[in-house]
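Here is the promised in-class demo. Please do not try to memorize the tokens; focus on the logic of going from shape to residues.
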């Protein structure tokens, strides 16, 4: 009787492992499909934003045709300041930021006496 019970339990365990493998495979396939959909959606959003920007430039150009737009490189005036090739933008660079001052050594937390555990 005990042998039959062990065989049944091993059979159920084998079925469980097989079903888990199938579930994992189906989840993997679903993730791949969702990733492909996400890439397509990102492309569509990017194209929509690009189209909105193009329309906004066209409207701005219609409203003020006398001023040059950044889309037309011939209409731009030459820049007066040429940045160095290795220089980075200050807004994204951490090099130009000042380092905050360190607190004096006597104000450093020495510990809290209330936290000391006294045991008998």
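The designed amino acids, position by position:
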């Amino acid at each position: 009787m005990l042998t039959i019970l062990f065989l049944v339990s091993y059979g159920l365990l084998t079925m469980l492992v097989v079903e888990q493998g199938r579930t994992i495979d189906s989840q993997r396939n679903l993730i791949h499909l969702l990733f492909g959909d996400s890439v397509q959606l990102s492309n569509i959003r990017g194209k929509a934003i690009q189209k909105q920007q193009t329309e906004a430039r066209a409207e701005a150009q219609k409203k003020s045709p006398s001023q040059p737009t950044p889309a037309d490189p011939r209409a731009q005036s030459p820049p007066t300041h040429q940045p160095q090739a290795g220089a980075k933008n200050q807004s994204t660079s951490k090099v130009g930021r000042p380092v905050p001052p360190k607190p004096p050594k006597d104000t450093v937390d020495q510990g809290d006496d209330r936290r000391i555990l006294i045991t008998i």
